[in-house]
Amino acid sequence: MDFGFTAAQDAFRKEIRAELAARHIQEELDRLALRDDREPDVRPLYRALGQSGLLAVNWPSEYGGRDTGLAEASIVAEELVRAGVPDTLHVNTIQIVGLFVLLAGSPDLKSRCLPDLAAGRRFASVLYTEPEAGSDLAGLRTTAVREADGDGYLLHGVKAYSLKSDITDLALCAARTGDTEDRYQGISLFLVDLHAPGVHRETIPGIADEQFHRVVLDGVRVPAADRVGAEGAGWPLLTSALAIERTGLDYALKAERWYAAALDGGLEPEDLVEAGRYGAAVEAARLLSWRVIGQLATGLDEVDDTLAATAKLLTSELARSVAGWAATLPAPVGAARRRAAGMLEAAYREAPGLTLSAGTSEVMLQIIAVGDTDGIKHDDEELLLRQVRGEVRRRLRQATQDRDRDPVTAVHGPPAAHDDRCPAWPALVELGAPGFEVPAEAGGLDLGLAGSLAVCEELGRAGLSGPYRGVALTADVLRTAVQDGPGPAGAGREALFLLAAGELTVDCGDFDLERPLRTRAAADGVLVDGPVTLDGPNAHHLLLPVHVDGTTALALVPAGRSARRTERIGQDTVVTLEGVRIAPRDIVCRPSGPDLRSLTARHRVRQAGYLLGLARGALTAARAHTAERHQFGVPLHDFQSIAFRLAEAAAQLELVRLAVHRAAWLADEGRPVERAAVDALGLAAEAVTRTTSVAVHVCGTRGLTAQRPVQRYYRLARTEAVRLGTPGRLWREAALIRLAGRDDLEMLTRPTLAETGGRPPEDRNPKWTGGPQ
Prior knowledge:
Elements: H1 7-20, H2 23-34, H3 43-51, H4 70-82, H5 88-104, H6 107-119, E1 124-127, E2 143-146, E3 152-163, E4 170-176, E5 187-193, E6 199-204, E7 212-223, E8 227-228, H7 234-245, H8 249-264, H9 272-297, H10 305-326, H11 335-354, H12 361-369, H13 383-399, H14 407-412, H15 425-431, H16 448-461, H17 468-480, H18 490-500, E9 506-507, E10 519-522, E11 525-534, E12 541-548, E13 551-558, E14 564-569, E15 572-582, E16 587-589, H19 593-628, E17 630-631, E18 634-635, H20 640-668, H21 674-698, H22 710-720, H23 727-740
Parallel strand pairs: 1-4, 9-12
Antiparallel strand pairs: 2-3, 3-7, 4-5, 5-8, 6-7, 10-11, 11-15, 12-13, 13-16, 14-15, 17-18
Helix pairs in contact: 1-4, 2-3, 4-8, 5-6, 5-7, 8-9, 8-10, 8-11, 9-10, 9-20, 9-21, 9-23, 10-11, 10-12, 10-20, 12-20, 13-16, 16-19, 16-20, 17-18, 17-19, 19-20, 19-21, 19-22, 20-21, 21-22, 21-23
């Protein structure tokens, strides 16, 4: 799976930024910023953009474009918003109306209409909604009747809640041209001249800065040449093009811009948790939008309707939520912060409308609810990894087919075995999974973190555990311990061979490099004391972070050597080490700062993948139950109150999946992964808790027994979601990384950091004196 842009696309983005810095564009942007009216006229700015060819870059050059692709057009859309260009006129004129004309307009209509739109000489709006036809567009009543003695149509009807129709020249209008029993038939699309006789426009005041408009069509004549597509073929065009409106990119960009403004306004220490959470969600939402764009780039028929609905749902709801959160922050002071406050106040009023346009959130949930079992087709993984995942899933299914034969053990015993007694472990060893991340020269398969992630997800999906994550982390540690040549030397190299063969298992427990165990000097090495939370009693070795000679070291200690007291606290096994000797040969690694962060990040990504698998397993089991279980004569899934809860969970898990897989991709590409890893783990930790709780609830009392496996996922989520830190701790860390600008990821959620070399100005957060540790 590729989460990056090509070198050519990166160069194109830099070129666009340079063009937006041109004097004539900056003058219009400055003039717009100085306006104090609620809805300033943006047409002069758009004319400047059109003069530079920045409005319709993916259109053919004969129509005023640059002959680029959809990806490049989306890059331009991002940079326009980031530069401060209001986007509604661009979305309506170029991305909707212009694209409809490109898709279905006649050659004559294209040549007459498109060049003016691309140049910013004329503008367009959309006339779909009517007073009695909103989400149910097939209920529209506007008619288009053929002229008795002419080559045209006469349009009669009322369109409502249109944006920018007071200043646009053209409008794409849906009207009935036939009277059929099937209300989805007989709808046609027209390009209406809004300056024509019979067009009456009036404002419908609303709370947002951009006002709605009511457009009355009283016998408006439209030539047949201005019909878009064949007569009566409007509905297929509307439905096929809905994915264009549902990429969610415009909503994701609003969320990004509002999030950046919230950070610019200054944060209190107690705001850091929400700042971290929203930062992760904003970036993941953008990933989701780009995934839809990637499908669109290959053709409208390639777009997964469930994915498009997911993108629209989550990005619009996120933008609304970010605006609501920003409204709760302290009132900023200073001129720059007052500008941010003004933007956020307007955002608060605009945000509710985002969840209504292009289909309400409820419509999106309905589309997701009737999708396939997993909600979305995951066909974006590389073929080899798909094959690996499929084989792991098959073997784990075989290993667990008789697992819950004893219902008492199924609910009263441990939810999963963490050591090599796990029923999946022999199957994984036979498959070679312990060596997925081990270099080939040490007997491994060198599949990278992405390969390991497939195993972790499938273990979670099966409700299993085992020593796999500890083994993979230890392989990371041993690779970090390289001394000479391409591979680890001495005992470390031998241990890697044993790991790859599945002959050495490691318990790393609640591995935390930021909190190493204290040691005291001894004749041969050091002695370590203190409590650690381990997975179980039967691993071959323990991997312990210890404090030695003023630094953090990693020790691989045979489990049989340790002197310890063991007690069970809830589902946790807490072991108190008492004078356990660590010899110099047991120290396998003394990682530097960057290595420490890399080890932690990779371990977090695997854990995030495991949590994602747990959540998916619970959701699949719950959906199966609601399809089989009937109440009042119908399946439970037919009740929207249940179907929508599961649909929302499925949508959120797609967001988590992208965040987790992107973090693995960054690690395998050798790019900064620290922030992406903490984002992925935070999102996964909250999602698994929420999803397993929903799953148990919708399964009713059966979900509390061995009749349904959801209880297993629910119990595992209790400990696994906080294994590497509570979500609150993770979000605080993520926020501090963002505020420090401590990475160079391309997908920034705070573009203004570029102005200060990646660090916020000192006066930007005057009440916050802490910093990333």
